[in-house]
Write a structure and sequence with these properties.
447 residues, alpha+beta, 23 strands, globular
Length: 447
């Protein structure tokens, strides 16, 4: 195990925490990581097999062993998200902060990929709330949009832009969640690369980068809004010291969110700054603090008026919106946010992709089958083998009495769409989403 090669880490840990706490934490890092997932309760009420509840998240479960998730069609259909259990505390934070606000909110998830916290927050939002998920690293933005599409809430827009471009907008957001890129000490058990890359120099580099991200984006938060700063590391440079920097340099005050933790498993090295430890709460490391902005807001930039194509949809409660040569479905109560379409930097995904025109023909997108609302499209039931063939994007020689676009229904879940023709089902699963290996179908749910 690599920890014995990193004496500097052990020294840093015992310098940061009281001796017994540091010792218990260090010993817990020698054990195996847990596997946990969060179910999409708008798609299922089932409990995974061989699992037990995550105490701080009603929809989440620990699994007794880690299955091959790629072999589970329910995974691809957004019926659950594999997420580290302690990171789910951020969902509890959002739920508490949302209870303090009576009007609809616009929320920014600043460093969002691959989408665990994004999909968690989207599940807890009210009907008129809008979530903007951003990923600055271009190679990671598509997996974020894919996971948002599969989750199917339809209330999330996805951007790919530097945090400074959000700061330049002025006060637009009621909440900003910043899960800042860090040295990853809290992920040592799950990610061996984090151990290899760890160094005191990297901590200093991460701390400086985190300060820049927060400073660059701070102006996009409304006065009185909430900035949720989090990392998955243990040192104070990236955690408490950076929170002090935010308060002293940018103008904010810490918010007491201890009500989310009635059992008292969270640990505070400093007041109102919370740490999750593997020996206290089954999962990996997490630090978070909530800062309420009390400085005067900067001027909100107004964009020029743009003509946006809007058409009513036959899907109840949704409208078609034409944006960047694509057609999107957005909830009707999100029409109030259309002014953001040409204001948000790097915006490339709006609600749910309805489809596109390809070689002069309409090509619908499978995301419409993965929405959490009921669809009027006809269903075609498929078995395990056909489900895995569908996910590999193969033609399925199954004749159906239904012709045209149909929803592929496996077990009790919609997993995508096909074009039903005379001799079978022409696969419309996106090429970039396809499963590239042969797997025997298996699911975490009882059947």
């Amino acid at each position: 195990f690599l920890f014995k090669m990193k004496e500097e880490f052990k020294t840093s840990l015992f310098k940061t925490l009281p001796h017994q706490e540091a010792n218990d934490l260090y010993e817990s890092l020698q054990s195996n990581p847990t596997t946990s997932l969060r179910t999409n309760t708008k798609k299922t009420k089932l409990t995974p097999l061989n699992s037990h509840k995550v105490a701080h998240c009603n929809s989440a479960f620990y699994l007794n062993e880690r299955p091959v998730f790629t072999a589970d069609p329910a995974f691809h259909a957004g019926v659950y998200y594999v997420q580290e259990a302690n990171s789910m505390w951020i969902g509890r934070v959002f739920e508490y902060l949302r209870s303090l606000i009576t009007e609809s909110v616009v929320v920014l998830d600043l460093c969002a990929a691959p989408g665990g916290k994004t999909t968690h927050i989207s599940s807890l939002m009210q009907a008129s709330d809008l979530l903007v998920a951003n990923e600055v690293i271009s190679s990671r933005k598509n997996i974020l949009a894919e996971n948002v599409s599969k989750w199917g809430d339809g209330n999330t827009w996805v951007c790919s832009a530097d945090p400074m471009r959000f700061g330049n907008l002025g006060p637009l957001f009621d909440m900003v969640f910043c899960d800042a890129p860090c040295s990853g000490e809290g992920m040592f058990r799950k990610d061996p690369n984090a151990q290899y890359e760890w160094s005191l120099e990297n901590i200093a580099l991460c701390s400086s980068r985190q300060q820049r991200i927060v400073s660059d984006s701070w102006n996009c938060l409304k006065e009185g809004g909430y900035f949720v700063y989090s990392t998955c590391t243990f040192n104070t440079e990236e955690n408490e010291e950076n929170v002090n920097f935010i308060i002293d340099s940018l103008g904010g005050e810490l918010v007491d969110v201890s009500k989310i933790d009635p059992s008292g498993v969270l640990y505070c090295l400093k007041k109102y700054q919370y740490r999750c430890f593997p020996h206290r709460s089954t999962g990996e490391g997490l630090f978070f603090a909530v800062i309420r902005k009390n400085s005067s807001p900067s001027k909100l930039i107004k964009n020029k008026a743009q003509r946006i194509e809007i058409k009513k949809s036959d899907i109840n409660g949704f409208s078609y919106v034409g944006f960047r040569s694509k057609n999107w479905l957005i909830p009707n109560n999100h029409l109030q946010h259309l002014n953001l379409l040409y204001l948000l930097p790097g915006l490339f995904h709006v609600g749910t992709l309805f489809g596109d025109v390809f070689k002069g023909k309409w090509k619908p997108h499978p995301a419409i089958a993965l929405l959490v609302i009921e669809s009027s499209l006809p269903l075609v039931e498929i078995n395990d083998q056909e489900a895995m063939a569908y996910l590999r994007r193969e033609f399925i020689p199954k004749k159906s009495t239904q012709h045209g676009v149909v929803i592929m229904r496996w077990f009790e879940f919609n997993i995508g769409i096909s074009n039903s023709i005379n001799n079978g089902l022409n696969n419309l699963w996106p090429m970039e989403w396809r499963v590239r290996n042969q797997f025997l179908c298996n699911t975490v749910f009882p059947r």
